[in-house]
Structures are given as C-alpha cells and as structure tokens.
C-alpha cells in the first residue's frame, strides 16, 4: 500500500474560540520519519484510532467515526478530541484522494512519554481491492476471546468497547484464521456468545430480520453496522441487537462481516460448515455502502 | 524523562555469517522523528519489547531478556531476532549510560505496513527514582483480567505470555489503581487466581518459602523473578511456582511486585488491607538486584 497523504494535528492548539484550524494541521511525507521513538503509541499501543472508508473523495459516516473516537478517548482517559479540528483535517486529507475507494486513518496517541500533550495524525491510502471478498464471500473460524460475557460490565479497565491501538491480539486472530485455511475470524466469549470480527462487526439474517450482538457486550459499536441497520429499516426489514449464542452463526439464513473499508463481506463458511451466500442481496448492501453517506 | 541515546537496528542485515554488526546499527537522535506513520507498532501495537535495567552501565540479565524477546517473537509469528546483533546493539547503547540506574528498551515491530521486514530499535533513558517504592512500599489493588485460568491453554492467539506492544489495558489498569488511591495493580483471573502486575511479577513469602504464579498461567515469565529465585535458593530459601488463589495475597507473610527497573517493591496494602513490610530483607533483595547480574 502506498500512503498517499498524511498530516499531523496539533491537539494542543485546538480551542472553541477558533473556527479555522488550518494552521494546526501540518502536511507530512507519509513515507518519511515523523514520530519519535518516545511515542507511547509505538511503545505501548497507548492511543486510539478510526478507519474511515472514502469513496470518490467522500469520507463515509465521518461524524459517526468522530463520535466513536470521542467515546474511545473517554474510555481511555485521553483528552477529548476537538471534533471540528478533526473534521477539517479529514477534509484536507480527503482532498488528496483519487477516484475510487480509499481509507483514511485517524490516530490519537497519548503522546511522547512524559510529554505534555497527545500526538495525532491522519493518513490516506488507496483501499485494497475487496471485490473478491464482497462477491465470493469469506470463510471464517470462531475463536475464543478468553473472556466471559460479564467481563465488560465488571472490568472497564479492559477497555472493551474502545478502539485502541493495542491490536496485537486482533492481528494474531487473523493469522490463526489463515493458518486454519480461513480468511477471517469471529471472536466468541468463553461462555459461548458471538462478539465481533477482529476488524469488523457480525451481521446475521433470519428471514426478514437482521441481528447483531449487543454493543454493551464488549465489542465496538460498528459504524458500518449502524449505517446498514438504518438502510435495512428503510427497506422494511426488522433490525435488532441481541445476545447471540454461537449456534446462531450457523442457524442464520445468511451472515456477513461488515466494516468501513471491506464493507459487507458475506460469510461462506463458519468453522468449515458452509453457509449460503445471497450474492444479489449482498451487492445491494454494498451499493448502498458505496453511495455517499453522512 | 530525557532519552539519552537511541539506535535503529536493521534486522534484514543480520545473518549467521557475520560476527560484527556495527554497520547494521545506526545511532539516531532520540527526540527527532525516526518512525513513519506506516509503522505497525504505532498503528496496531503490533510488535514486542523488553525493558532492561542498567546499573552503572551494566545491562542486567541481558541474555534472559533476549531469550524472552525470542520467545515473544515465536508467539507473535515475528522473524526470530538475531541475538548477537541485539547484544552488540545493547552494548553500544549501554556505553552511553551515566553512572547509576538507567533503562534500555528493545523494540521489535512487525515493520511498516506491507513492508518487507520488521523494524527494530533500542533506546536508553535514565531510570526514574524508585527509592520510595523500594523502601516504603506500594499499595496495590486486585483487578480482574477478564479471563479464566484456562484461557492461555485453549486460546494461544490471545498472546498471553508474549510481551507485546499492545499495553493499553496494562496502562488502563495502573490508571484505575491510582483512581482508587493505590500505586499499582495485581491482575487476577475471573476464577480467582493471582496473575501478575501490569508491568511486574508477583512474589509472595510464606515463612522461608517464596512462591510466584505458574508462568504457564497466562503471565510473562519475569526475568527479575527468575533472578531472585536463584538468589533466594542460594540463601537457602525454598522457591516454587504455584497456582495461587487470590486469598494467598493477604495470607502471605510478605509480598512484592518485582520488575527490571523498579526492582523489588514491597506491597504495603492489598485492596486497603495492610501487609507487613520487612524493610531490611527487601533492602537485601534490592542490593542483590543492583549488583552486576548476567
């Protein structure tokens, strides 16, 4: 992936008295050294992020991503991001996008160790070609996340629900899935409930009803899932958040992993058990997801 | 903390045919930009690290740390670090240490996203003054790690036992401890067994017997704990690895959190319940830990 554009944000320069943040945004060469070895993002995965899909230069669901960034900041005791400053940064970065699909990443780090302020930056890169996953589907394996479904409520320091930079386990889960001949994973609780993919939300269809796990159950509340629920409701389908036992995955009429960049990827097999793919319906979801969304 | 010295290692240049790695080690300004925004360490906490105590220029237990780095690399599917290259890097960095206590950090990252090789660097900084923790002790709280004691065996993708850069939860646990008026935390399993501190190992004394949790129970095998076990055995004490129920923490005659830089910090209270401190005995442990160790 060639990084196309990057800028550094100065969060310390943000205050409500200003409306123009241009001078707090500094374009950098995305391939050049930009961060010091003292960065806590790199030393301890101590920060938060968002990945925003960009279609023909339009950042999709920008405000939903910014709200989740602010939510993650609260869970991690980071200073609240100044959302207008981030909006202007995203607009500047999106201007550099080529036609087609790109991805914008927002990163808010706790900063340089013992430093006074967070560091923050925004990058742009072309999106990988996800046609195959969207059309032919993905094979997934279920992987135990090690925690029971009560953990998020009793242990907020586990940061379940925050999109932190500490993604080593998420990456290891995808490697484990590939080792098993699959494409991706679905995390489940130790007491047998569906959680999420390492970088996606789970969406299940039962007849004309679409369900996803409760966001309070220790998962990220997916921006793409929320957007799809709105779209499905408009098309007359029922949608619901539910506690989903693992068996629901194979009992569903169809299942998807949905995320901001790969969009809706139909699941063709779960733990080697085949699942039907509705190619036409999936294409309709992805047409919606590729249309400009705010 | 002022970073005193840093160098970048080129892991791609390491092979068994060479004995001198000087030209694969590049000194950098530790305060200057050195890492690109594409670094997976910073984007996903995707890498591993070690913190080595340095006393009067001598890196303590260097080989134990390098062996653990190699162990973490295996668990994370990272290329094996070339240990002689790292030894020469540590020696070069240690030469820049002032008298007294310092800390050397080793970082091995998966590299720049979609790049061909890992990135790696070593830093040196003066250690914080830990006199108060060593002499007066620390107050700790127990915090649920969310996982039961069977998780490490059944879910290796959770990387329990690897010292990854994904430390956001460890940092959040220390913040939670401070919010409760304590200094540090002890993680426990959801089924009630003692694990470790967020950046330390737990050591308990029962009479003339010293025990620590089983390293297979989802914790890091502490280099300082191993070194102290050798020392205690030489002094005629018994040492053992055991499954320790949470109640053992308050039943112990004394307890410590031990780590490479703070060394042996006696625990003066666990969840507001006072624990006796043996100042003289603790001082003897720290004298040993401050003596040159290989």
From TrEMBL, chains A, B:
EC number(s) stated in the UniProt entry for this protein: 4.1.3.38
Source species, domain of life: Bacteria
Keyword Aminoacyl-tRNA synthetase: no
Entry GO terms, CC: cytosol
Keywords: Lyase
GO BP terms, alphabetized: carboxylic acid biosynthetic process
SUPFAM superfamilies (UniProt xref): D-aminoacid aminotransferase-like PLP-dependent enzymes
Top enzyme class: lyase
The keyword Cell inner membrane belongs to this UniProt entry's keyword annotation: no
One GO MF term: 4-amino-4-deoxychorismate lyase activity
Family per record: Belongs to the class-IV pyridoxal-phosphate-dependent aminotransferase family.
Protein name per UniProt: Aminodeoxychorismate lyase
